[in-house]
Structure formats: structure tokens, C-alpha cells
Amino acid sequence: MKLPPLYPILDFSCFAAKGEPLAAKVTFAEQLLGAGATIIQYRDKSSDPRTFLANARELRRVTLNKAAFIINDRTDLALACDADGVHLGQDDLSPAAARKIFDQMVSHPFSQSSGNAQLLPERMGHPTGLESGEQWVPHPFAAKTNAPMKLSSERVGIDTAVTRGKLLIGFSTHNLSQVHEADSLPVDYIAIGPVFATGSKDNPDPVVGLDGVRAARAATTKPLVAIGGITRANAREVQAAGADSVAVISDLLESPAKAVADFLRVLG
Q1: pLDDT of residue 116
Q2: So where are the chain's domains?
Q3: How far is CA 72 from CA 93, 107, 203, in A?
Q4: What is the C-alpha to C-alpha distance for residues 236 and 42, in angstroms, rounded to an integer?
């Protein structure tokens, strides 16, 4: 698979203080898309599951047919909002378990087997965040695995991985040992970072620097996403060090449309 050079992350914490945080997030996502972003990850470390899911569903609506939509951490909520995949951290559900669940969704849609209605929540070990009376619904890919996705693979820049009905799994690593381990896991791309100092996490892992990106690139042939403190000023250096894509949060906030255009121009 091929990732787009820019990987925007929409972090709930950046909008929590807004008067209407959901509306602010939707507007922000629309500006990213309008400027050419073709993948967006939604990250929310603080909301309860129901709020997370409500926000994710609205962002899925905005991104549908326009960009790949990835949910951070929560495999269950990625499925519940019909996302295109999940990005997992070192302490989340294992990539192997997530892949097994995703493959089962494609092979055995719930609509054909009502006995599986509680399978995912039980296996994932945490609340689904669904309202009373709501049911788990299979991802659109599950109903007809050979059907092409409506989303243009050229527009998204992820070649045909998504169009074949495969839900994507990304995995965060923070040192070379973790990269080596991730290389053998059923993940579609590996993230390495933080590359530079970042304020996006309360307790960030040690900075890996450009040398860490180079080492990660040498350790895997999987698509590599660099994250942490990346700006328009240093993105080209990160790309030159071997990153296929750069994940950005803070440097998109002030003027998202201009920032996306700048990043795409810098990254080529």
C-alpha cells in the first residue's frame, strides 16, 4: 500500500474548549479535505465512549467518499462508525487481535449470523459506547467483499488496499526494537516517533530524532509514518530520512487549508 505524504490527525483535545467542539471539528476536517488531505485520523483520549462514537460518526460522514478515516486506539469504535481502519498504540488491543476481528467482519457479517451480535465487545474487553437499543452493524465491506469501495483509491492515495475490503491497521512504535517487532505483525503501516519534541501528549516517549527515522526505515519495508513535532519547516528533512508520510497535529491548527497546501508543496 502507499500512504499519502501528509497524514493529518484531528485531536479532540485541540477543540475541547470550543463553544461547539463538534462543529469546530467538522469545520476543521472540511478545511483539511478541501485543501487536499486524503486521510484523517481521529484521536480522543478523554471522551466517554458514547461521545467518542458520536463525534467519530459525524467525522465519518464528512470524510466519506473523500478521504480514508482512521480511528485512534479503539478497534470497536472504528467498526461502529464504519471507519476505514484503526491506529493502535503499544498498550491497545494487539494488531493480531484487531486483524482477526477485521477479517471476521469481512468473512462473517453480523447480518448473516445474529449469534455473533456480542462477539466484538466481549473480545475487545471494553465498553462499546452504543446507545441502548443500538446494534453492531458490519462495515460496508463485509456485505460484499469484492465490491469496489466508493472512495477513489487515487484520491485517497492508499492504492488498492482499501478497495479490496481490507480494513487498515497502523501501529505506533517508539524505538528500533518495537519497529523490528512491528515488522512481523499484521499491520499495514508503522508509525515511528516522536521524531521531535511534542506537546501533543502528556507523557511522550523519548525523542527518536531523524536518526531514529533512518533506523526504522532500514528495519522495515512497510510504509512508515513519522510523528511528533513535525512542522512545515522540518517535514522535508523527515521525508528525506525515510518517512513515507508525516503525521501532523499542531501545525495544522491555526490555518488548516493553508497548512495542508504548504505541506503538500513541501513534501511533493
Answers
A1: 36
A2: 87-149
A3: 11, 24, 17
A4: 24
